[in-house]
Amino acid sequence: MESWTFRRVLTVVGVGILAATAAGCGSEARFVNGPGSEEPPESLASITITPEEGTEDAPVSTELEIDVTDGELSDLVLQSDDGETVEGEMRPDGSSWVPASPLSYETTYTVTATALDEFEIATTAETEFTTMSSPPNRVWASLWNGSEYHYGQAIPIMVDFNRDFSVPEEERANVEKRLFVKSDPPQPGAWHWFSGNHLEYRPKDFWEPGTVIDVRIGLGGLPLGNGLYGEQDITGTIHIDSETRVVEVDNESKSMTAKKNGEVVKTMPVSLGKASTPSYSGTMIVMEKEAETVFDTTNEPGCDGEEDGEDCYITDIDWAQRLTWSGQYIHSAPWSIGDQGVRNVSHGCVNASPEDSEWIFNFTKLGDPVIVTGTEQRLPYGDGFTAFDLSWEEFLEGSYLPPPDESDSDSDTDDSAESDVN
């Protein structure tokens, strides 16, 4: 859609003044006629609406494209054939008007758009289209984040599709455009595809304390390629905790430091992964917390279901905080207290004393960053919630849309902010 900038014409009272003013304007002058005179002139503005008149089988994820020339859109109404008005809003870039929820299947809709030219003379256009029948082949998606929890500052927003489905590359930009994120306070962000069925959203830096994030996964009825469609929309509100917490683990000093709101709260000795099973260095995130669990490695390669006391074991564990999918944790290790702060003896986990492990367990929240430095091996891509382990430039490489405008006060990567046109 074009962007329109035009001057407003002031109304001047008095016929003599009006006539004199008009005569001085040359051929561009236009009169607004008084009572009993000829019909007022037609508007200079014109409107083109997509979907076009008579369109059939439109997806229920359809957005309205309203192209106005020589004027500015002033009103837009979308109604179903039973007279129900559909709520929605214009993307900030003016590219389309987005219904607030999927349209209904097998329903006829009427679009009525009104625009004003530079003289505020209105023109109206109308079109009618019909949505498709309910498709049999649909794909489920899910939003990992819940609305009831206050997460740490490094939590990404995570969307997963069915494990046996991968969004084709040619459809990924369209999917991203339907993933609406609004944060308060506003923080520009982007999506990154870690695989064809898993993507994560983050701002450039950690979330600001107290941020509230409204998410709409607008996939209901969206074409996903190969005759498949999204099952439904998903909405949620995500809360970021009002306090910031960071856990820093330093291999050189064999220590773990907890910081709250930028201040050191506690430093503890730890033992990290031995040379044959090193801990990862990188920015990890607390993914899960279990006060009691069992570590069972007997089904891993080379163990054949048997314990050998070294690499193949079944062990009760307290105060476990998962950092990677591959099994690195912060946890209680009473057996390695003599090594903590001195040498590395673990299988990749961060070992701490029972007292320190309980303390750090109660200190952290899901989504808090755990930054490990100085070990022999880097954190593998995608092993855990690794969004913030990537630089901002690296993260943007995983998106199929242009990067967000970081100077813009709005945080919507999909340009779905509120508009004056309803």
Describe this structure in words.
The chain has 422 residues and is mainly beta. The chain is 8% helix and 37% strand. It has 4 helices and 29 strands. The strands form 8 sheets. A 6-stranded mixed β-sheet has the order 22-21-20-28-23-29, with helices on one face. Strands 2-8-7-4 form a 4-stranded mixed β-sheet, with no helix packed on it. Strands 10-12-15-14 form a 4-stranded antiparallel β-sheet, with no helix packed on it. It starts with 14 loop residues before the first helix and ends in a 26-residue tail after the last helix. The N terminus and C terminus are likely disordered.
The secondary-structure class comes to mainly beta
* Radius of gyration, whole Å: 29 Å
Give the overall silhouette.
elongated
What fraction strand? 35-45%
| Average pLDDT, all residues | 88
Q: Note the main sheet.
A: 6 strands, mixed
Distance between the termini: 17 Å
What percent of residues adopt helix (DSSP H or I)? under 10%
What ranges have pLDDT less than 50 throughout 5 or more consecutive residues?
1-31, 409-422
Number of helices: 4
Total number of beta strands: 29
Strand line-up in the sheet with most strands: 22-21-20-28-23-29
Structure, briefly:
The protein is mainly β. 8% of the residues lie in helices and 37% in strands. It contains 4 helices and 29 strands.
Question: What is the secondary structure topology, with strand pairs?
Answer:
Layout: H1 15-23, E1 46-50, E2 55-58, E3 65-69, E4 72-80, E5 88-90, E6 97-99, E7 108-116, E8 122-131, E9 138-139, E10 141-143, E11 150-151, E12 157-161, H2 169-177, E13 179-184, E14 189-195, E15 198-203, E16 212-217, E17 223-225, E18 228-230, E19 234-240, E20 245-250, E21 255-260, E22 263-269, E23 280-285, E24 288-296, E25 314-322, E26 329-332, E27 350-352, H3 354-363, E28 369-373, E29 377-378, H4 392-396
Parallel strand pairs: 2-8, 9-18, 11-19, 20-28, 23-29, 26-27
Antiparallel strand pairs: 1-3, 4-7, 5-6, 7-8, 10-12, 12-15, 13-16, 14-15, 16-19, 17-18, 20-21, 21-22, 23-28, 24-25, 25-26
